[in-house]
TrEMBL record:
<dbReference type="GO" id="GO:0005829">
    <property type="term" value="C:cytosol"/>
</dbReference>
<keyword id="KW-0808">Transferase</keyword>
<dbReference type="GO" id="GO:0008865">
    <property type="term" value="F:fructokinase activity"/>
</dbReference>
<dbReference type="Pfam" id="PF00294">
    <property type="entry name" value="PfkB"/>
</dbReference>
<keyword id="KW-0067">ATP-binding</keyword>
<comment type="similarity">
    <text>Belongs to the carbohydrate kinase PfkB family.</text>
</comment>
<dbReference type="InterPro" id="IPR023314">
    <property type="entry name" value="Myo_inos_IolC-like_sf"/>
</dbReference>
<dbReference type="GO" id="GO:0006000">
    <property type="term" value="P:fructose metabolic process"/>
</dbReference>
<protein>
    <recommendedName>
        <fullName>fructokinase</fullName>
        <ecNumber>2.7.1.4</ecNumber>
    </recommendedName>
</protein>
<feature type="domain" description="Carbohydrate kinase PfkB">
    <location>
        <begin position="2"/>
        <end position="263"/>
    </location>
</feature>
<comment type="pathway">
    <text>Glycan biosynthesis; starch biosynthesis.</text>
</comment>
<keyword id="KW-0119">Carbohydrate metabolism</keyword>
<dbReference type="InterPro" id="IPR011611">
    <property type="entry name" value="PfkB_dom"/>
</dbReference>
<dbReference type="InterPro" id="IPR029056">
    <property type="entry name" value="Ribokinase-like"/>
</dbReference>
<keyword id="KW-0547">Nucleotide-binding</keyword>
<dbReference type="GO" id="GO:0005524">
    <property type="term" value="F:ATP binding"/>
</dbReference>
<keyword id="KW-0418">Kinase</keyword>
Length: 267
């Protein structure tokens, strides 16, 4: 989890912006908050700097009904920051400050495994795979969930500026691909991971594997496509005046997971 600094005017560069508004960010935390707001129960596992921003973020989790028992503080590292450029169409670009930030320093020993094992679904991204010790902590948490029979949900949430190279990002993201029961990717991420046309179903299905229960591709304003072993389909998007797309995919995932948790008989 991190602090996003968002320009108070869209369509300008970071240098041109006259001011910024701080906001909580981080895809898995956004998903946890979405689930809570929709009436579900959620918890977050991650490390924070023992600073004002870190305590602010944990307080925000609690205020949104998210269990924060799995959130230790680090006295020697800061909470991560990101500056976000809003384009005129509501899309974003990111500049990160984390070298290293507290979230990168979560260790396996700091995991609250009892909290993880109480879940119905364990949801995660790929950013925690970039560096040690967080990568090992991520893998240990995921394996603890799987060994407890918990469904695993993966949203790669590609952020290339955080990875050493594009190929390192592909390799890292795909290294745990086949551990998931559900995967949500955007059309842009399909294009990146397959290096092909995201709207060619053959390319999309190259991401399918035996044992996967649901693959969802979000297509921005066009809606989404979904694939299971038995059926597939698509749903149109809602027509809205776009202001800021930040967190849109996370809200989508939160609403999907809370309904899967209520009834997974579809699979």
């Amino acid at each position: 989890m991190l602090i996003d600094f968002v320009p108070n005017v869209a369509g300008v560069s970071l240098a041109e912006s006259g001011g910024f508004v701080k906001a909580p960010g981080g895809a898995p935390a956004n998903v946890a908050c979405a689930i809570s707001k929709l009436g579900g129960f959620s918890a977050f596992v991650g490390k924070f700097g023992d600073d004002e921003f870190g305590h602010m973020l944990v307080d925000i989790l609690k205020q949104n009904g998210v269990n924060a028992e799995g959130c230790p503080f680090d006295q020697h590292a800061r909470t991560a920051l990101a500056f976000v450029t809003l384009k005129s169409n509501g899309e974003r670009e990111f500049m990160f400050y984390r070298n290293p930030s507290a979230d990168m320093l979560l260790t396996e020993a700091e995991l609250n495994l009892d909290l993880i094992r109480r879940a119905r679904i364990f949801h995660y991204g790929s950013i925690s795979l970039i560096t040690e010790p967080c990568r090992s902590a991520h893998v240990a948490a995921m394996r603890a969930a799987k060994s407890a029979g918990i469904l695993c949900s993966y949203d790669p949430n590609v952020r290339l500026p955080l990875w050493p190279s594009d190929q390192a990002a592909r390799d890292g993201i795909m290294s745990i691909w086949k551990e998931a029961d559900f995967i949500k990717v955007s059309d842009e991420e399909v294009a990146f991971l397959t290096q092909g046309d995201a709207h060619d179903e053959k390319n999309v299905l190259s991401l399918w594997f035996e044992g996967l229960k649901l693959l969802v591709v979000t297509d921005g304003e066009k809606g989404c496509r979904y694939f299971t072993k038995d059926f597939k389909g698509s749903l149109p998007g809602y027509s809205v005046d776009t202001v800021d797309t930040t967190g849109a995919g996370d809200a989508f995932v939160g609403s999907l997971l809370i309904n899967v948790a209520k009834d997974d008989s579809i699979f």
